[in-house]
Specification:
The chain has helices spanning about 10-15, 45-55, 150, 180-195; strands spanning about 20-25, 25-30, 65-75, 85-95, 100-105, 110-125, 155-160, 160-165, 200-210, 220-230, 235-240, 245-255. By secondary structure, it is mostly beta strands. It is globular. Its EC number is 3.1.2.-.
Length: about 260
């Protein structure tokens, strides 16, 4: 059994994401960087967790939180300095039914990597546990997981419209309420979009709209369609489809050409 399907693993352990700590009004988490070039897709769990934790701990008497819309803008999609990234999350606006949180992610040299926002809705009738740690303890990356595709146990194929990523049933990818973790969904949307755009492109911005929970006991297909293919910019739409063909989430991803690669999209 691989690390990515080991029932002792979690979405956080697959990507080296630490537990959150509270520093005044700010929540902080880290993500350990492995060897080789990092992928924007690998930040999915870090981004969703830091924003989700930030809103969750301001929920008052409500039971839990579900993500509605997650947006990420990457200032530097490559060339990050380790040993880990640091994400700080703050609340921007809040009411009884939910709110908006923002996060700033920097690398080990203090350079800005990305800014992200999350609209979340508070819900009742669910059981969630999101403990706050007393101090940051960077999480190690598991051996045997080389990147996001391996962590998802996914398979990629080209299609006439772009690309398709299939993520098999895997309880390791679940969140606190048993459905697929929002950060895993974000990661998968990014992986599919990048495959559709081509290896010379890097994700510049991504917006995911979450519609319905995604079950982890059945395969999920991420269909990526290239909407615009230019020399410098590609725009890709990705739909997450359940085993019954229902659209559970959708993402619009803008990718820009890697300046070190002369190839076009």
């Amino acid at each position: 059994m691989s690390i990515a399907t080991d029932l002792g693993a979690t979405p956080q352990s697959l990507f080296g994401v630490s537990r959150a700590v509270r520093i005044g009004d700010v929540n902080r988490m880290t993500m350990t960087l492995g060897e080789g070039e990092a992928s924007t897709a690998a930040l999915g769990v870090l981004v969703d967790d830091i924003l989700g934790f930030t809103l969750y701990h301001r929920r008052g008497d409500r039971d839990g939180l579900v993500s509605a819309t997650l947006s990420v803008d990457y200032a530097r999609p490559t060339g990050w300095h380790g040993p880990h990234l640091t994400a700080d999350g703050t609340v921007e606006t809040l009411d009884r039914d939910g709110g908006l949180a923002s996060a700033r992610i920097v690398d080990g040299a203090g350079a800005l990597i990305a800014r992200a926002t999350l609209w979340g809705s508070f819900v009742d009738g669910v059981t969630q546990t999101r403990p706050i740690a007393t101090e940051i303890t960077p999480a190690p990356l598991p051996a045997g997981v080389a990147g996001p595709i391996e962590a998802l146990c996914g398979t990629l194929e080209s299609t006439e419209a772009g690309a398709r990523l299939t993520v098999p049933p895997n309880p390791v990818l679940a969140n606190a309420i048993g459905s697929m973790h929002g950060g895993i969904l974000t990661c998968a949307h990014d992986v599919a979009a990048t495959a559709a755009a081509g290896s010379s492109m890097r994700t510049a911005s991504l917006t995911v709209n979450f519609f319905t929970p995604v079950l982890v006991d059945a395969a999920t297909v991420f269909d990526a369609t290239v909407l615009r293919a230019g020399h410098r910019v590609c725009v890709v739409r990705v739909s997450a489809l359940s085993s019954s063909g229902r659209e559970c989430s959708t993402a619009t991803v803008t990718l820009r050409r890697n300046p070190d690669d002369a190839a076009s999209c």
